Amino acid sequence: MRKSTRCPQPPGASAKTIPALEVNSSTGACAGVERKAGAWGLDRLRLPDHLVRVSCILLLACLVTDGRSLGYEPAGTGGWYQAKTAHTPGKMKGVFVGRLAGFVTWPEKAFKDKQDKLRVVFIGDDSDGVETGFRAEVIAKKNSSRALDAGGRYFAAQHLNFVPESKDSQGKRLPKQPAERLALEKAIRECHVIYISAPKAGTLSNAAEKLRTIELLQLASTGHQLTLGESPTFCEWGGMARLFVSLEKKLSFDINLPPMRKQELLVHSRILDFARKTYR
After folding, report:
1. Going by C-beta distance under 8 Å and a sequence separation of 6 or more, which residues neighbour residue 111?
2. Least confident residue range of 47-51, 202-206, 219-223, 235-239
3. Is 196 exposed, middle or buried (0-12, 13-18, 19+ CB in 10 A)?
4. Cα→Cα distances 85→70, 88, 92, 138, 141, Å
5. Helix 49-69 vs helix 89-101: angle between axes, to the nearest 10 degrees?
6. CB atoms within 10 A of CB 118
7. How far is CA 114 from CA 117, 184, 271, in A?
């Protein structure tokens, strides 16, 4: 891929437009184009044009660099990265959780203060190593430089098993819940990202998995949590982003924008260009 260090501002561009980086997937060439200032929410930053151009280039470069550092290379249409070594898909998903968070803006009220960490909760089985990859590649290696953070915040991770809500014979919630269930509810209320792993093959029927997922999404519906999952119908059930690896070992993802808007989460438009499917 040909590298470009500068994308010139188009002639006649007004002060109310922001040059964006357009990349040709076949040639790797880039060109400056005009975009509305509000498209990325960058108008509020009031940065000089040259800083905006540099920021766009660095953001895109980080996406490619992280994948290649793990032995992945950019995939073609429908794939984010394609493995060229023996790295596990779970490890790549773990890295992508941190990378995706860097393209999402949370409202200030989602954090206690400026030093509050961006908390990620992994729920369910981790046999694929998603949480392991996240801890090894994001927390251990990146927190010191804040290279994968959102808004200059460190990451923190927590793993919890799903504990169903205790109900009576009529399906009503019991006033006294197990301690594990209360801990799960508290963690979801206080976190910013929830990753719901798919159950092991044969352990849950599709109907049971749907009930479990919807219950967890409902717990997260009153805050500002970014919900990530693996199930093929995760977005249809109300999740915000689904991560999956194809038979060709390509890491892809789908984005569901309506629940993100409801939770007051803003996602950079550039990340949508790489999504396999975007629900609007």
Report:
1. 153, 192
2. 47-51
3. buried
4. 8, 9, 12, 20, 20
5. 170
6. 25
7. 8, 25, 25
Q: Which of 235, 237, 230 is nearest to 207 (CA)?
A: 237
Backbone angles phi, psi at 206, to 5 degrees: -60, -35
**Residue 81, phi-psi category: left (phi > 0), alpha (psi -120 to 50), beta (remainder):** beta
Residue among 17, 23, 21 at smallest CA distance from 49: 17
Are 84 and 73 contacting, i.e. CB atoms less than 8 angstroms apart?
yes
Distance CA 127, CA 75 (A): 25
Alpha-carbon span 162 to 200, nearest angstrom: 13
- Hey, what are 194's tokens? 């929830």
**Cα torsion angle, 100, 105, 111, 114, sign:** positive
Cα–Cα nearest to 56, from 3, 117, 7: 7
**Strand runs (DSSP E) across the chain, as ranges?**
17-23, 30-36, 72-74, 81-83, 104-105, 118-123, 155-160, 193-196, 226-229, 241-245, 250-256, 266-267, 277-279
The amino acid occupying position 113 is D
Instruction: Decide if 39 contacts 266 (C-beta within 8 A).
Output: no
Domains belonging to the chain, first-starting first, are 1-69 (no CATH), 86-279 (3.40.50.2300)
Three-state SS for 187? helix
Residues 6+ apart with CB under 8 A from 43: 16, 18, 37
Digit-coded pLDDT (tens) for 215-260: 999 999 988 999 999 999 999 999 999 999 887 788 899 999 999 9
